[in-house]
Amino acid sequence: MDSNAVLDIGLQALVVAAKLAAPVLITALVVGFAISLFQSITQIQEVTLSFVPKAIAVSLALLITGHWMIAEIVSFTHAMFDKIPGLLGG
């Protein structure tokens, strides 16, 4: 196994991790921005006002994209297991 193969596997892992984290992070970002905008307009500074909607939105994002996330990680894992014989030189 050479260093190019290791770098390729590492790059693929980072891309898959970014793809899996994106729906949750983008949802939290958008909801957090909307709540912050609402708080700055109304000058209501309540901590739970920012936490509860964000937690609900992230939960919904996980419910909606969960099946896709599992399919992506299973596909990546199968691809890695399929690469093992080639990486070992067999």
Automatic annotation (TrEMBL):
One annotated GO biological process: protein secretion
Source domain of life: Bacteria
Main localisation: membrane
Membrane-protein topology: Multi-pass membrane protein
Short name of one Pfam family: Bac_export_3
Keyword Transmembrane helix recorded: yes
Subcellular location, record wording: Cell membrane; Bacterial flagellum basal body
Keyword Lipid metabolism assigned: no
GO terms for cellular component: bacterial-type flagellum basal body; plasma membrane
Protein family (similarity comment): Belongs to the FliQ/MopD/SpaQ family.
Biological role: Role in flagellar biosynthesis.
Name used for this protein in its record: Flagellar biosynthetic protein FliQ
Source organism of the structure: Glaciibacter psychrotolerans
Gene giving rise to this polypeptide: fliQ
